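User: Mind token order:
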Amino acid sequence: MPVFRSGLLKQAFWLNATPATGRIYRDLELVATHPRLFKLGSRSTINGHMLPQALGYKIREP
């Protein structure tokens, strides 16, 4: 699984959704795979895909 690469921001991607997963591609390269979630409002965020500033905010102590 690739980690965050700033070169992927603001680019076109396509999604292949199956009953179990969502796969995100740029051109023909698989760049991310996430489990498919069905509960409204559910999120599947991979920390390695987040900007360092966003990750710091996410894991901050309350």
